[in-house]
Amino acid sequence: MEKSLIDAGMADIEENYKRISEKIACAALKSGRNPEDVRLMAVTKTVESVYINHAISLGAGLIGENRVQEYLGKKDELRLEGVEKHLIGHLQTNKVGKIVGLVDMIDSVDSVKIASEIGKASLKLGITTDVLVEVNIGNEESKFGFDPVRVSESIEQIGEIRGIRVKGLMAIPPVCEQESEVCEFFANMYRMFLDIKAKKSDNIDMNILSMGMSSDYEQAICEGSTMVRVGSALFGKRVY
Ligand SMILES: *Cc1c(COP(=O)(O)O)cnc(C)c1O
Q1: Which of 129, 152, 215, 225 has the most CB within a 10 Å radius?
Q2: What is the enclosing helix (H) or strand (E) of 62?
C-alpha cells in the first residue's frame, strides 16, 4: 500500500526522534555527563497538531511554542496530558495575560519589564510562573535577550519580583561558520550559568541551561546544556 503524505511524515518523525534521542545520549556520554541530565524539547512552531501529537506519542514530553497566538490556536487539538509546555519566543506585554497559567514555563524573559508583567499576571491567578532568563550571548541587534555583561545584575532584579521563579538561562548563539566558535558561545553561557548558580540568591533556582538547536545541539550538550530545543531536525523543514 502506498503511504499517504501524513504516514510518510509520521515515519520520518519517528525516525528523527529516535536518532536525535540517541545523539543526545551519545553527546552526553562523550562529555562525561549523564544522558538523563539533558532534556529534549520538541519545538513545535508552524507544526500541525497531528504531527505534534505523534511526537508526543513517541515520548516527547516537553514542547516549546514560539507564539502565544499560535499556541492558543492549537492547544485544544493537542494531547497534552503529562506534557510540559514552554513558551520560547519573545513575549509582548499585551500577550502576557493570555499565556500566563497556560504554559509551565516562559523561557524567553528578555527584560525586567516583561518579568514584572508575568509576575503581576501570575499573582492575579494566585500562581507562581517559572521562567528562564534569555541571554543575547552574541550581543546581536537582531536578537532579544539581556546583554551578557548585565545578566548577573538583571537577574538580581528579576529575583525580587513576586509571582515568578527563575529556573535558569536560555540562549540562541549567533550563526557560526566554525564549530569552535559556537562552542565558545556555549561555554560562555555555561560559565555564566555556574556563576549565577554559585551565588545562591533567593528565588533563583539555577537548574536549567537551555541551549542548542537542530544544527548544534550536540555541541551545546558538550558545553553543558541541560535542555536542547529541536524543531526542524525532528519535524522537517518549516513551512511558514
Ligand atoms: C525555532 C526555534 C528553535 C528550533 O530551531 P531548529 O533550528 O528548527 O531546531 C529553538 N529555539 C527557539 C527559540 C526557536 O525559535
Answers
A1: 225
A2: strand 62-65
Number of H helices, E strands in the chain: 9, 8
Query: Does ligand 1 lie within 6 Å of residue 143's CB atom?
Result: no
21's CB contacts (< 8 A; 6+ apart) are 40, 59
Summarize pLDDT for 107-121 with one digit per residue, the tens.
999 999 999 999 999
Angle between helices 49-58 and 5-30 (to 10 degrees): 50
How do 227-230 and 39-43 pair as beta strands?
parallel
Contact 65, 84 (CB under 8 A): no
Please state which of the ranges 7-11, 89-93, 175-179, 188-192 shows the lowest mean pLDDT. 7-11
Q: Ligand 1: distance of its center to the CA of 126 in Å? A: 31
231 lines ligand 1 (CB under 6 A): yes
Alpha-carbon gap, residue 124 to 73, rounded angstroms: 24
> Taking the model in full, what pTM does it have?
0.96
- Decide if 33 contacts 221 (C-beta within 8 A): yes
